[in-house]
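2024-03-11 09:14:02 DEBUG pipeline.ingest accepted 1 chain
2024-03-11 09:14:02 DEBUG pipeline.ingest length=235
2024-03-11 09:14:03 DEBUG pipeline.predict start
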Amino acid sequence: MKKTLTDDEFLDTLMELVLAEGIRNLTIGEIAARLRCSRRRLYEIAQTKEEIFCAMVDRFFRGVLDKGEALAGEKHDLPAAIAAYLDEGVKAGARISVGFLNDVEESEAARASFDHYQQTRTLRLAEQVDEGVRTGVFIPCHGRVVSEVILGAALRLRRPGFLSDAGLTIEEAFQEFYRLLLSGLLAQASKLAPDPEGLVLADPPGRTAPARRGKRAKARNTDLDKKLLEAWNRD
């Protein structure tokens, strides 16, 4: 470690420590020793150990949101943008330890930061889903309903007890969930059945949009579905 770290480098190093170990089993003295800093530098962040932890929780999740937006903004089409946005959340999950999750759940302030992060991501995804519906990438659906389903699932999937029982890391749980989500939203996943005239029944009952689509539309949707899944699948 460098003898003198900038403020951002110091905060990032502290953040990585609590991500890897949580805060419960660390004292201020131990943290200062591990980071080779004074206790005073830690107390400049916040007044108590829990407040320091909450500040790092907030820093982590704000960073994931900012990076997800930046990565999505670099993409030139919606499928790749959505895949990049979801993927950043999955990769962030790989940095979270069980100890960190346990400590988050036991702290009202830290839990509120996690909740805000997940709510922000799901609302952003709702906007992307609505855009996908308008452009024909996704089946007709309501983005806010989708976002609430995602939020409800996210709040349960992050629970340490569930992850332990399922034998999954939080990264693995969310990656599986997002695969299921994308498969359900894709236009190709809607009930497509050729009729005697070679057309396709693609829209669910009760929709005002035309129910019949030609082979050209089906081929276009298939290409978009493939593109989204290719963008999502990481090596």
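2024-03-11 09:14:41 DEBUG pipeline.report The chain has one domain: 61-232.
2024-03-11 09:14:41 DEBUG pipeline.predict end
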